[in-house]
Structure formats: C-alpha cells, structure tokens
Amino acid sequence: MFSVVIPAYNESTVIERCLRAMLQDAKPGEFEIVVVPNGCSDDTADRARAFGEMVKVVETPVGSKSGALNLGDEHATGFPRMYIDADIVVTTEALRDIAGMLGDDSPVLVAAPRAIIAFEDRPWQVRSFCKVWTSLPYFTEGMIGSGFYAFSRKGRERFDRFPEIIADDGFARLQAAPHERRTSSRSSFTISPPTTLRAIANVMVRVRAGNYELREKFPALFDNETTSASRSLQIIATQPGLWFHAPIYLGVMLYSKLLAHRKLQRKQQSMWERDETARQI
User: Would you give the DSSP letter of residue 114?
Assistant: First the structure.
C-alpha cells in the first residue's frame, strides 16, 4: 500500500475535484490518502471527510505547508509516498504508474507524472508566458514538482523532516541526482495556471524567492540542478517559434527577480500571495 499526503489550506473549492479523480478507480486498501487542512477557515476538512475510509483527515490550526507535510508524514504508513497539492487533478491510474516506478529495488528515488498545463482557454498574455515556460528545461528534462512529487522509501530517507521553506518542491526534486529522478511518459497530471498575467507574476515571485532561499539554506543540493537562466535564454534564442512570446515571459521573470529580492531583503517571507484565480471552478 502506498500513501498520498495532501496539504490543504482553504481548498474547499478544489479538494473534492482532487479526491474524486484520485479515487475514481481505486480498490479498497490499495492506497491511503492523508489530507492535512492547516490553518483553514473554510470547510476543507468536512469536504474531505465526506469521502469515507480511504481519506484520513488530520487537522492543524497552524497554517504552514511544511508543517502540514510533516504532520501528514506522521500519519501516513505506506511507500512509495506522494505529496500532492489540493488543486492538482491526477487519476488513480497515474498514481499506480508512479507507485510502480518507485519500488524498493528501483534506481528511481523521486518521480512524478508528466505535467500538463491547461492554458488553452487563458488570455493571450498567459498563453504566451506558458508557451515559453513549458518549452524550457524545468519542464522538458524530468520535471518533478509543481504540485506533485513522490519518493520511494530510499528516496524519503535522504532527509528527516521538511524544513520551513517556500520551495518544498525544489527541495524534494534536488534530493535526487538527475539519474535518480524520473518523469513518467505514461501518465500525466493537470495544472490549472492563473487566469491573469498579474497572478502569474505573483506566483513567479514566490517561485523565484523560493529558489533563492533554497540555495542559501541548502547550497549542496544544487549539485543536482540541471537548469539555469543561461540555458533557458539559449533555448529561447534558438527556437523562432518562441520569439513572439519571449518578451512577456522575460518581462515577468525580470519582475519576479526584482520583487523577490526586495521581499527577502525586507524579511517578508510570510507575505507571499498564492493564486486564487485558478481555484474558482
């Protein structure tokens, strides 16, 4: 039996969609789901409990994603172990696929399905940003994170508890060397991007700040990094199909760089905004 941990902060609008997709074809006892509502002021916990025995709900009044991940670990019993955001849509079959990649004898320590960014119905500015973003190494070379990452038992033994940081997904991905992490070609999960360019920019500020913080606190992990700004620029420069869209992408990333530095310098880590536009379903 494998385990799925879902940290959830005020996710009443999406938690049912998330759980329905995971449980649609599940067999009793095949896996367990631990939902951790943290600091919620809505009915996320009640909506999760309504799914019955396969969903364990562990509430905490402390609003902290890292704290919720650790609390979920304390109550989860199985491996492989998956950590999935509540606004992600992933099927039962995709969960099985990833569990099969992370057996005790597998050389793969960290894995995820292929991410699909559902941006076709977004405004043209958002579509332009996403077309460039999804063409870069973070997505094309074994992307692990952005709402879904999973560890084998050996992979999870690489560290003790999740640290109190912004970029838990980056921390997880970099626990493994490139040859130890894998993105499945057989399964996928769906990410709903923000509906406005301003919301995209706010998300990128958080991503950028998370990377800065991660590099400062855990520099050794970056021995496992394969992406860089220079590589991204080279890819954009050699793909004419991206040139029309590049100014929007580069403008957002420059903005996020400047604002992330400013907020970190002012020690405003607790003031990050999350995107609410994609949660209005």
Answer: E
